[in-house]
Amino acid sequence: MGVAGFRSAGPQYSGPDWLQATWSIWQDAAPMRQNHFTRPTVLAALAMLDSRLSQAKFDHLVLRLGLEDLISSDPSLSVSKKSAQLGRLVLANGAELIQTLEGPVTLTEATVREAIALTLDTSSPSVEQERLLRALALDGFVVQWDEGASASPHLRAALPDEVDLPSTDDEVHQLLKHFGFHVALGHLDQAIDAHTRGDWAAANSQTRTFMEGLFDQIAEHIDKTAATAAGSSENRRAWLTQEGFLSRERNEWTPDGKNYVNGLFKMLHTEGSHPGLSDDDRSTFRLHIVLVTARTFLRRLRNGA
């Protein structure tokens, strides 16, 4: 097949209870017609394919994706070079629908699922597999394996469909650029990069700094003189409440500190392990919550609240 067509109230849970309530929602991730995978996930999937497939198996993959007219089967071309060709096609034309055994899916999804099929249920995964699983987690997905000898991997949605982390992340980036919040944007990008590397301490630190910087820049956008006079980040958040941007009625900010924003920052400042949760679970949860929260307040600012 050719591809010429290419081209705000806070939740009722807090702390660990909130975490467990959010992560208890597991659904089968059925084939999707939209792209739900970010660039880091696509790149991690390509690295997985490159590391695990032989020449013959990569050529079979190309046939399954219908790209035989665009990616050569010449054995003198290395698997890495073929993978790079596939990567350029996916990144440029990932929304193109192709036919698979599971039905029509985007080229991006088909490529990611091919990589997932190569994952193993093991306590000592390869570096490529670890990076792929971390990238999927950031997109709101996990991989589970069947029990028994076959141990086939399955993609599962780890969050409610309406959250849609990739589109949330994209919207947050667009709004940060729209308002010129470049400092906050830099911290967010560093948090995502650190998470993708598995550097949980750096990811947590940058996630916290991003959220603090976001409220600071929102206050400065509304009234730079008053925001500067407030002195501290906490005072600026209190000032945002006085100005009506944060709501007392919805328990977003209250003088006694028992509110959503204060609770969020207390959670972001905690260090150390939590029983039953791995470092990557906690780091991924923090990043998810911060992205959804940032989107809510950036939308409010855009709408002139």
Task: Present the secondary structure layout.
Blueprint lengths: L14 H9 L3 E2 L10 H14 L2 H11 L13 H15 L3 E4 L2 E4 H10 L10 H12 L2 E5 L7 E5 L7 H15 L2 H16 L2 H23 L1 H7 L2 H10 L17 H10 L9 H24 L3
Antiparallel strand pairs: 1-5, 2-3, 4-5
Helix pairs in contact: 2-4, 2-5, 2-6, 6-8, 7-13, 8-9, 9-10, 9-11, 9-13, 10-11
Explain the overall architecture.
Strand 4 (141-145) and strand 5 form a beta hairpin. With 305 residues, the chain is mainly alpha-helical. The chain has 13 helices and five strands. The protein is elongated. It has helices at residues 15-23, 39-52, 55-65, 79-93, 107-116, 127-138, 165-179, 182-197, 200-222, 224-230, 233-242, 260-269, 279-302; strands at residues 27-28, 97-100, 103-106, 141-145, 153-157. The longest helix has 24 residues, at 279-302. It folds into two domains: 26-157; 165-302. The strands form two sheets. It has a three-stranded antiparallel β-sheet. Strands 2-3 form a two-stranded antiparallel sheet. Mean pLDDT is 82; it is low at 1-33 and 272-277.
